[in-house]
């Protein structure tokens, strides 16, 4: 068998997935121009309607409550301090937390 008749050896590229065709210079310039146009449109939209892009202020009390309800380290009997007072966690680890699981600590009963 002649070397010219043998199968060509496989290269690394034969094992790789086919790549996307190369972008022409004109296509590349068009993509850049499209991106610039979209950026200008977004910038104009933000200037014309800033109220749509204002962050929504979070209620700190709501955030703190949600954090407590998600805190998996709490155990029955743990005491937490809030601006509304001190509370004892009376919930169970095998059940979802509820607002009712936090019982106010009555400072007058502590002696």
Describe it:
This protein has 111 residues and is of the alpha+beta class. The protein is 35% helix and 11% strand. Strands 1-2-3 form a three-stranded antiparallel β-sheet, with no helix packed on it. The protein is elongated, with a radius of gyration of 32 Å.
In short:
By secondary structure, the protein is an alpha+beta fold.
State the main characteristics.
single chain, 111 residues, alpha+beta, three-stranded antiparallel beta sheet
Draw up the topology in text.
Blueprint: H1 12-15, H2 25-48, H3 60-70, E1 79-82, E2 85-89, E3 102-104
Antiparallel strand pairs: 1-2, 2-3
Summing up helix and strand content along with how strands pair, one would put the structural category as: alpha+beta
Q: Write down the overall mean pLDDT.
A: 82
Mass-distribution shape: elongated
Strand content: 5-15%
């Amino acid at each position: 068998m002649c070397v010219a008749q043998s199968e060509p050896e496989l290269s690394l590229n034969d094992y790789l997935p086919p790549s996307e065709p190369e972008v022409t210079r004109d296509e590349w310039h068009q993509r850049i121009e499209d991106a610039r146009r979209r950026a200008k449109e977004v910038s104009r939209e933000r200037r014309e309607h800033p109220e749509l892009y204002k962050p929504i202020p979070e209620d700190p009390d709501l955030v703190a409550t949600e954090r407590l309800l998600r805190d998996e380290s709490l155990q029955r009997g743990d005491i937490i301090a809030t601006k509304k007072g001190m509370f004892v966690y009376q919930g169970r680890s095998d059940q979802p937390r509820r607002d009712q699981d936090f019982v106010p600590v009555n400072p007058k009963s502590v002696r």
